[in-house]
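At this stage, I wrote out one protein, both as residues and as discrete backbone shape codes, and that material follows here.
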Amino acid sequence: MVMSSILSNPPRCGDIDQPAKIQRQSNMDPSMLDTQYFFFGSHGISGLFGIITDDRSASLPSHLRRRIDELSSLSSNWDGEGAKKIKTNVISDVVEALKCLMQLEGNFREPFLAPTFDGFVQIEWHGDKRSLEIEAVETGWLLVGTMATAGGERQYFSADCGISNFERLGRFYYWFIGTEMLWPSL
């Protein structure tokens, strides 16, 4: 059953237990839906998260969409050492962050996406002089940057950011690509 076409303004998956109205498609059998409202979250319909993520990731480059699909399909214990399944709301947050970063001025560099053992995702960029790692966590984003000095020493920086503060995430990305010279810690 293809339901992506019937979702109207799907909720951000971080909006746990908020009702989301689903509009019926004119050619859809009304018996396919028990109600017009579903609750998303720990007691909701988890299968719809994949549809929402697929729909939201449509504007990402194909390589990133494939990686998102791979991360979404990892099961518990994917590493053979008890790693948790990646939380669906985390996948959705990563997709939203990537979409926002792609809209920034300048050339977007595709990151490497890595699962973490505790069910989250790390977004990584590595360049000759700088690297930026953004990890999705329960409280938002944790950021770590490294920079090679002229003398060859490595400087390390860290910060955190709210889950929806894409403007601030953008400033850290600009730091990575060299548009911002100073680590945007405040």
User: Anything to note?
Assistant: The chain has one domain: 4-177.
